[in-house]
């Protein structure tokens, strides 16, 4: 892998991992009245089963590690798509394009996670409640927008440059005369 792309992937992954970690933790504690530990034990329970909710620090750490794996996966998916599809590169070269792509990618992430990945891992169908809808819409600003902004260079760099390749100017300079 191109070293610049690797750096971009790691930067994207860590950005989204931190932002979504903070959002999920604050939402769980302040809006839902739960605890930090219960949130991350709940994440771990998707693969470890309901006993993870009584598991203590180890299952909290498993939940956080799962979160990091998911954040890495969705960062890598988007970077791969953006690198492979010039249309995405063109769209995310503008602030409006970044918002538009995030408005699609965020809900897509939540739909795949809540309707496919988590049910397959947990062996149970999703429960569609108000919290499910909050997650659907929250994935736009707290998950997809940071991913798209980092990959797109925050709208300040051209698509190819922000995706780890050198920027090529489209302007030509006349040759110098001696």
Structure, described:
This protein has 178 residues and is mainly α. It has one domain (3-162). The chain is built from 7 helices and no strands. It has helices spanning 3-31, 36-48, 57-84, 86-91, 95-122, 130-151, 159-162. Helix 1 (3-31) crosses helix 3 (57-84), helix 2 packs across helix 3 (57-84) and helix 2 packs across helix 5.
Features:
globular, disordered C terminus, 178 residues, 7 helices, mainly alpha, single chain, 0% strand
Draw up the topology in text.
Layout: H1 3-31, H2 36-48, H3 57-84, H4 86-91, H5 95-122, H6 130-151, H7 159-162
Helix pairs in contact: 1-3, 1-6, 2-3, 2-5, 5-6
Helical percentage:
over 70%
Total number of helices: 7
Nearest-integer average pLDDT: 89
Question: Could you name the ranges where pLDDT drops below 50 across 5 or more consecutive residues?
Answer: 154-161, 166-176
Biggest sheet features:
none
Count of β-strands: 0
- What class do helices, strands and sheet pairing give? mainly alpha
